[in-house]
Amino acid sequence: MLVTLYETVAAAEEGQAGALWRLAEGGRQLDANLVRLAPDASVAEHVESELDVLLVVVEGAGHLDNGVERQPLAPGTVAWLPRTARRALSAGPDGLAYLSVHRRRPGLKIGVRTAPVDEGGEAPCSLDRVCPACGRMATESDARYCARCGEELSS
Predict the structure, then answer these.
(1) 124 pLDDT exceeds 60?
(2) Which of 102, 107, 122, 147 to pair with 51, CA 20 to 30 A apart?
(3) Stretch among 82-91, 121-130, 140-149 having the lowest mean pLDDT
(4) Is the CB of residue 34 less than 8 Å from the CB of residue 19?
């Protein structure tokens, strides 16, 4: 399977934010998403407790904040976000498009529940909480509409 990231970003509608492309083939071991944040939009600080995430900037600019330092992001930047690391993303005035890649989460299983490890955080793929119109990430995991602009969130 071949995808040209630059062409995918260029072909997206003007101002379109959220997931522009997703790896969706069955039986895969990876998840990958091409995401575009609107100008000056952000992804709130969160912690991924289970998976490492690789982030590759495709277009635009912004910053990655790991809770200790704020690092600039530009096209071609590759960032490894290890599990349990705090992270927040913010887009610059021209927006930010990036590829996010991580191991696919296994499906839910029926069985005995084990005690959770309290490392905090969210799933690495919270795209269902990113508003496709303005790029704002909903703070509530069950939000159906964007609190900023009222756009329906994808499900």
Answers:
(1) no
(2) 147
(3) 121-130
(4) yes
Q: Dihedral of the CA atoms 132, 10, 97, 48 (nearest 10)?
A: 60
HSE (CB half, 13 Å, CA atoms) of 133? 10
Per-residue pLDDT tens for 55-105? 999 999 999 998 889 999 999 999 999 999 899 999 999 999 999 999 887
pLDDT at 112: 61
72-102 burial code (b ≥16 CB/10 A, e <16): ebeeebebebeeeeebbbbbbeebbbbbbeb
